[in-house]
Sequence to fold (104 residues):
Amino acid sequence: MKRKPPSDSPFEAQRKAAQRAALNALRRARRSAEKAGVSLSEWEGEFLDSVSDRVKTHGRAFADPEKGAPGQALSAMQGRKLKEIAAKAKGEAPKPRWGRKRQE
Fold:
């Protein structure tokens, strides 16, 4: 039985897993929007494209280490925007943000 060669380090494996998870989440968001017939804005489509390109090319989508965890592929804000796009694709109402409550 052939065995795989030992991996570089557990940190490298964790980084690659985070990269795969981010790419899968980006694909899922786009696919669910297309399937539901929800049209994404021009900005949202460009965001999904550019973030997936940066993750494929560089392994993560942000350059400043203060914007996200060291082993993660997306920054905190990129993850939040991705969740908002996925919720829009599912047809859910946007969650209220911090600050004042909206007058309805």
About this structure: The mean pLDDT is 85.
